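Study this:
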Amino acid sequence: MKLSSCFIEPEGPIETKVQQPASYLRGVLDLDGKVVSAELAITACGVYRCFVNGRPVTDQVFTPGFTYYRERLQYQRYDVTGLVASGTNVVGVVLGDGWYRGKIGAFSRRNHYGTKTKLAAVLTVTFSDGSVAQLTTGSDWRATQDGPIRMSDWKDGEVYDARMEIDGWAEPGFDDRGWHGVAASAYDGELVPSRGEPITEHERFRPEVLTTPDNSTVLDFGQNLFGYVEFSVNGPAGRTVRLTHGETLDEHGNFTLKNVSMPGALEKRTGLRQEIAYTLREGSQTYKPRFTAHGFRYVKVEDWPEEVGPESFAAIAVYSDMKQLGEFSCSEVLLNKVTGNTRWSQKGNFLDIPTDCPTRERAGWTGDIGVFAETGGYLMDINRFLTKWLRDLALQQDPDGRVASIVPDVGMFKYMDGSAGWADAAVIVPHTLYRLYGNTEVLNAQYESMKRWLGFVRRRARRTGLFSRHRFSPHRKFIVDTGYHWGEWLEPGHDMGKDVLRNTFVPDAEVATAYFAYSAALLADVAAVLGKIDDASEYAELSANVKAAYRDAFTSDGIVESDRQCRYVRPVALDLLPEEEKAENVARLNDLVVANDYRIGTGFLTTPFILPVLTDYGYPNTAYRVALNRKRPGWLYEVEKGATTIWENWNGLDEHNVPKDSFNHYSFGTIVGWLFSRVAGISPLEPGFAKSRIRPVPGGGLKQAKCRYESAAGMISSSWTADDGEFRLTVDVPTETLVELPDGNSQTVPRGIHSFSCRVPE
């Protein structure tokens, strides 16, 4: 029987406004013969934990993962040959709400994809004589909601009553006559095998126990992460202990969630709880959550029945099981910390989908991953991970080509979809995967989605905003001045709320037109790679026309006139101007940065580019001074304030230690891309590093830098020292590589280890 035809619902009538207990289900199969193989295919609308004869079938968690459930649902296959035997066998499953009907997104919407959890499973057993037996989910299965998980929510947390644990429920011989039957159900989308990386447990941390000024007991695990706490406790039955998880302490040193709370009335409706309520049974016991996880470093412990000791607790980091590809270190230890913080923000936000933060929203914002994909690809292998997510982006895309701001959908306002720089992830992310990994399959798979997005933008450009100053421009049909655009998000000196309001009524045409040109150029490149010559020519011409419109509308004869750093970075980084005009604009950018005391002044969209632009156009010392600046806003300011991940907001913790916004948000971690590609100098000359370039740029007083990157073509390393004007470089490369030295000399070298030296100004 096909998996798609055997969905069941374990619950009877429910009150949809009330969070429900987890469901426990079991099916029985009697086997007579010698088993040679057994395979279980399983999926759920919700999240599941599965056991065969009482033993777990996998170490994965939060299966089947998060997809755009209206169109597709993942299933998993497990080899369970070692778990079944002749005689009575039991498949037991626990179902929680997960993303399917639990709270998701900034507004904590429940029941967004459905109101009841569902299960489908097929156990196929093959005997030595070639015969086959199957157990499928159907009317003979039994279920109960009278288990210990009284509530499990993706954001709120878990309520667990250990007194209600059911011994032996997933094993043969259990009496389930007190359980009830199940109802046949259906799933209307497509069932697909898992295509991303499995979600698993990783690092474990022991805490320091704090007593805060308000006399609370708080655990400090020393690392901001996404996961959960495992604890052991001994106390009287019926005692309920509570653990509340948060990222930071407030300005008084007390536990707080205010930095990730919604403003005003929204907080009353959508407040973030991140709480475990555990009711003890008699005696010693150990627990960790099944169907919830939290973004946290600190945990407030309440009603603990014994002395709180660090040995009783362990924080477990949970994220998609991606291979680490790159390492960077240098003589400035604070920059090394920034690299580590960025990796931890990637881990904390790469859980089956790329999220913005692991607390308040946990949403797959397209803009965030669009700016971070290259940096993320240097740190970890995100090829399969993002290829899986991109499929949801295409399936969720509107018929007219508009791309959502969040993928998968979590119920945000539709009018905010199609934002320039966000929706352009539809083109940017596949192109990045191709450049880093040589992945042409993702280009083929996403090509129609890319074309549909550009078609939408072209039609949008033909419309003119009611109060547009570009109404009579000869380039009007190539200027995008309608629609909602998030703009240069979280730019220093700009208020988030005011930006949203302004962008709602006054579209940021400069950003929108820039990304129109940029995505058209990338799509022309993709089309050429795929052999679609006519398309390549069409999109190259389109990009050229939009660039001309941009230059005419947003510069004065090619020169930007602005006091905002982003306005100079964007046309250079996105290749919107001739080279001589780029050079003049970077000179002005340099003056602006110097006048700003070398403090970063960019938001989400141009922070990835500002240091590379300064470096490439002759101002590496300015780039280093920005990178090494210890004043707010700046990366090292965050580190010296105790950050263990990247903050969402440059002003996340002010000089008075008042916290603001998420403390775990990878977007501003894109400085690490500069550390790999400019400081260490490693970049691809051909897709997938079939041919690479190593062009290190020393500076900032760094005495040495070392980088290793396991590219698609093999391990690449770049290691240099700089002392008394003498620069020494050693590289180890797997393919032909162009090595460019700081003195301007270059050499193409074959596979192997090579050493170089030159004189450079101090």
Summary: Residues 3-153+162-196 form a domain with the Jelly Rolls fold (CATH 2.60.120.260). The chain has a mean pLDDT of 96. The chain is about 25% helix and 25% strand.
